[in-house]
Amino acid sequence: QLQLVESGGGLAQPGGSLRLSCTASGFSLDDYTVGWFRQPPAKLHEGVSCIRTNGYETSYSDSVKGRFTISRDKNTVHLQMNNLTREDTAVYHCASTGDLTHTCPIRFNDVFRWGKGTPVTVSE
Q1: 45 pLDDT higher than 90
Q2: 78: exposed, middle or buried (C-beta count within 10 Å: 0-12, 13-18, 19+)?
Q3: Do you find a cis peptide bond into 105, omega within 30 degrees of 0?
Q4: Which tops the pLDDT comparison, 28 or 64?
Q5: 20-39 pLDDT tens trace
Q6: Is 26 in contact with 3 (CB distance < 8 Å)?
Q7: pLDDT of amino acid 100
């Protein structure tokens, strides 16, 4: 079965860190542009970060720039989240495009495959 699987979510305190990972099952994630989206409670999805197949072309939303770092290694894409705030509380979804030439950022409607998501809660 072709799917994306996220891991690493959980509870963190304000100012803390978490590292999310996205792995692919049944196909090679190395062949696609990959992004992270998040959906806060009662809000729409927001594009957070993106990384192209070359591993060095990336993009970040203004709300996470300077705090989050996206990287990829051996069929896995990571999102290192530092200096977390309560506003980062959301379900984080990994998403891939359908081709290796797609640029960053990825628009919501351009996502070819979604992961089920991993929840992140930032609270005292």
Answers
A1: yes
A2: middle
A3: yes
A4: 64
A5: 999 999 999 988 999 999 99
A6: yes
A7: 77
- Is 39:46 a contact under the CB 8 Å cutoff? yes
Per-residue DSSP letter, 59: E
Distances (CA, A) of 31 to 64, 72, 98: 25, 11, 9
Six token digits for residue 19? 């590292």
Closest CA to 4 of 69, 58, 76, 87: 76
Degrees (nearest 5) of the Cα angle 69, 21, 55?
A: 50
Q: Which of 75, 118, 66 is nearest to 96 (CA)?
A: 75
Model confidence at 96, pLDDT cuts 50, 70, 90, reads very high
Comparing 16 with 1, the larger pLDDT belongs to 16
User: Rounded CA gap, 15 and 82, in Å?
Assistant: 7
Helices (H) and strands (E) in the chain, counts: 0, 11
